[in-house]
Amino acid sequence: MITLKGEHIYLRALEPEDLAFIHTIENDESIWEISNTITPYSKYLIKQYLEHAHKDIYEVKQLRLVISSYDDEALGMIDVFDFDVKNRRAGIGILVKETANRQKGFGKEALNLLVNYCFTHLDMHQLYCNISEGNKASIALFTNQGFQEIGLKKDWNLVNNQFKNEYIFQLINK
């Protein structure tokens, strides 16, 4: 049995009921930097996305899961993207929505569950993430999970009319 359950949270597939939650996240300008978003998303577009969210990761090359508390509060989302079966690698992105829910271990637990899932069930050889140079919390989260910094992409992202550097971190399944 595939288990994506931790001690305090579990990871679940997207549901139609997540429309408002995802709409709020996708339209929060304060996090557009980490999602490389530059325009708002309509509920219509997100509804269409949710209608196709059931598709297989091997087909769409992406898997988005909700980080949920055991009282079914949606805390955030965690993604597998750029899923590359041939080279057995994928990217990972994570967001805990509310500031009050950060630094409580939810992200750490979600990342641990997803890394184990990717290595055990998806047979990935390596995972990577891209983190803005100033995002100290994400750098700590991924390095504590064993990801290693492998490079710095200079002036990689234009944010508020200023170029920012971005690190790339990698975890190889030994």
Automatic annotation (TrEMBL):
N-acetyltransferase domain ranges (all copies): 9-172
Q: Which Gene3D superfamilies match?
A: 3.40.630.30
InterPro entries, per the entry:
Acyl_CoA_acyltransferase (IPR016181), GNAT_dom (IPR000182)
Q: Which UniProt keywords are listed?
A: Acyltransferase, Transferase
Q: Which domain of life is it from?
A: Bacteria
Q: Which SUPFAM superfamilies match?
A: Acyl-CoA N-acyltransferases (Nat)
Stated EC number for the protein is: 2.3.-.-
Example of a GO MF term? acyltransferase activity
- State what protein this is by name: GNAT family N-acetyltransferase
